[in-house]
Design a protein that fits this description.
Elements (H helix, E strand, L loop, with lengths): L2 H66 L2 H12 L3 H12 L1 H4 L7 E10 L2 E6 L5 H11 L4 H4 L1 E8 L14 E11 L2 E10 L1 H7 L8 E5 L5 E2 L10 H6 L2 E2 L5 E5 L3 E7 L6 E7 H7 L1 H30 L3 H11 L14 H41 L2 H16 L3 H18 L8 E3 H18 L4 E7 L7 E3 L3 H13 L12 E10 L2 E8 L6 H9 L10 H14 L4 E7 L3 E9 L3
Helix pairs in contact: 1-7, 1-10, 2-3, 12-18, 13-14, 13-15, 14-15, 15-16
Length: 587
């Protein structure tokens, strides 16, 4: 049996023995260890959720009491009872509708207010403007089962409703609940019921799903309401009867055979949140389980090492030399090699080691060189991503158009600038190319911007052979060339009075053998032959000032295409300039 087979066989036997032992006791140890702590965490979560719900309840109770004791409301109701005309009724409804704004209630929580006043055997109803009939009917039916003389206040169970338009408080909700409190003024008695959106409470209660999959939200009568789990396994009556209370009578827990149930009571109205953690959830979600599993795996690994050390030492002593040489490699000595003295597995390892060391040395040298080039390329691309000169000119154009009240033109220029900046921000170290057609679209957006500013001063002509549109070229080289043609050619060509004569910029892209020939030409001011030669042949790093665009383009072309490209400038003063670029085809 070969060495690798012996080692593999020994490791498999040891692994199977320890794996069987660990898996047989792990789940029981973890469950017994963390179930108490997990139950405590569940009660803490329930407390946090119920505290947030109590804040909503408290706000609703506060607002209800404010409405019930509002002198302005008392006065308007009394006026209506004395003179029950539509005008006085409208005043009451309007006053109720403005109560939320007046008392700074959170408007997203209140759907409407319903007031029932009784005097002399007569019952009077008042409600906020726009309160739907279905909500009014539900409140009336609910109040029939509430004795406010004894209870003083009561919550209305959540109910669903449909509404075609927004409520007076500005929002559209799907589910509501209410709070009814006693109303009394002089010899007028009755109740004030505030209808609030249940969606807020539902959203808070849904946080229970972050900790367990089975949970309930119960109202005053222990009826499950949304977002309770429909097929919940929680036995409410049994749980509440067998509850073991925690730090206060408002929280408690109940243990089942393979689950724990935690509950929290509300400060208001007997509401409750209950969650049930199964054995599987405790084992799957508890953080201490992870730590315990890691410790067990660590002990398992240590046991394997202790058992395998004498075995491995017996079989791997000849490999010590290879290990020593590997340490030398790790320290950075890539010249180290192994003298091969046998043809067995050890000899094969030594031969492979020597090949690896040679390849590693070659690859590291190549990687270092490639990394230097990529860093230089990244720098060149980064400085070309946002052109301050272009942004400056564009913002001036927008300012000019805004001063002329050409608002539609401002929007068009702004959209064009956004498209150009978005295209430039897509430049990454591993994405330095773009299609000819995409670069042409950027040029068109740029020309659109300049045409709005220099209306009627220049023309542009773009000729692109159809078969070249999908070829890839170095990103962001056409627009700077067109910009130079405009600002150093057309716009510099002026008459004796200093007015721009105007001209034409032509961009052509054609296929020449295995190269793309790109020509950007203008009939503007031109330049001297000396300046054109300097721009074409002088080292790029020495070009400064207004010709930074040419420098940037030439540097990036060198990095991307190395020496496989040509960049030619032809110009005469007073006649114009032609820039000719030939680059290899990239498909």
């Amino acid at each position: 049996m070969k060495l690798k087979n012996k080692l593999l066989f020994a490791q498999i036997v040891v692994f199977l023995i320890m794996f069987v032992i660990l898996t047989s006791v792990l789940s029981e140890i973890v469950y017994r260890t963390v179930s108490e702590n997990d139950c405590e965490n569940a009660m803490i979560l329930n407390e946090q959720i119920m505290t947030r719900m109590d804040q909503v309840f408290e706000e609703l109770v506060r607002f209800s009491n404010v409405v019930a004791s509002d002198n302005g409301l008392d006065e308007r109701i009394e006026n209506y009872i004395e003179d029950p005309g539509e005008a006085n009724a409208a005043k009451v409804r309007l006053y109720l509708s403005q109560a939320g704004i007046k008392d700074k209630i959170q408007s997203y929580g209140v759907l409407g207010i319903y007031v029932e006043a009784k005097k002399g055997g007569e019952t009077y109803e008042f409600y906020t403007v726009g309160l739907p009939d279905n909500i009014q009917n539900y409140v009336k039916e609910s109040l029939e089962y509430i004795n406010l003389e004894e209870e003083k206040y009561s919550f209305l169970s959540p109910f669903s409703y449909k509404i075609e338009s927004d409520t007076v408080f500005g929002n559209n909700f799907q589910k509501a609940y209410g709070y009814a409190t006693k109303y009394k003024f002089n010899d007028i008695k009755g109740s004030v019921t505030v209808i609030a959106a249940f969606d807020k409470l539902k959203y808070i209660a849904e946080n229970m799903k972050n900790y367990c999959e089975d949970y309930l939200l119960l109202d005053e009568e222990n009826h499950p309401v949304e977002p309770s789990v429909l097929d919940s396994q929680i036995r409410v009556e049994e749980t509440l009867k067998g509850m073991t209370y925690g730090k206060s009578y408002k929280e408690g827990s109940y243990k089942e055979k393979d689950a724990v149930v935690a509950a929290r009571y509300s400060e208001y109205g007997g509401w409750k949140v209950i969650c049930r953690l199964t054995r599987e959830e405790i084992l799957a979600n508890n953080r201490y389980l992870i730590l315990l599993a890691e410790l067990l795996v660590g002990f398992f690994g240590l046991g394997v090492v202790l058992v395998m050390v004498p075995i491995v030492r017996h079989f791997t002593r000849p490999l010590m030399e290879v290990s020593g040489r590997m340490n030398e490699i790790a320290k950075g000595n890539l010249q180290v090699r192994i003298e091969i003295q046998s043809t067995d597995e050890i000899g094969e390892v030594g031969k492979s080691f020597n090949i690896m060391a040679e390849k590693l040395q070659e690859n590291i040298e190549k990687m270092l060189e490639q990394e230097k080039r990529e860093q230089r390329l990244k720098y060149g691309l980064m400085i070309s991503q946002v052109d301050p000169h272009f942004i400056y000119n564009t913002m001036n154009t927008i300012t000019y158009l805004a001063q002329k009240n050409r608002n539609e033109d401002v929007i068009a220029v702004n959209k064009a600038m956004i498209e150009i900046l978005r295209d430039r921000l897509r430049i990454e170290i591993d994405n330095v190319y773009d299609t000819v057609w995409q670069e042409i679209k950027v040029v068109e957006q740029y020309l659109l911007i300049q045409k709005y500013r220099y209306l009627g001063i220049f023309k542009a002509k773009i000729e692109v052979e159809e078969e070249t549109k999908e070829f890839y070229i170095a990103k962001n080289i056409l627009q700077p060339l067109v910009e130079n043609a405009l600002f150093h050619g057309i716009f510099c060509n002026k008459d004796e009075e200093g007015e721009i004569i105007g001209g034409c910029v032509t961009v052509t892209v054609r296929l020449r053998n295995q190269y793309l020939k790109i020509v950007v030409e203008d009939n503007g001011a031109g330049m001297s032959e000396e300046m054109a030669e300097q721009l074409e042949h002088q080292r790029a790093a020495k070009i400064r000032g207004e010709h930074i665009g040419i420098r940037n383009i030439k540097e990036r072309l060198c990095y991307i295409y190395e020496s496989d490209f040509s960049f030619t400038i032809q110009s005469k003063e007073g006649e114009g300039t032609r820039v000719i670029l030939q680059i290899p085809i990239v498909k």
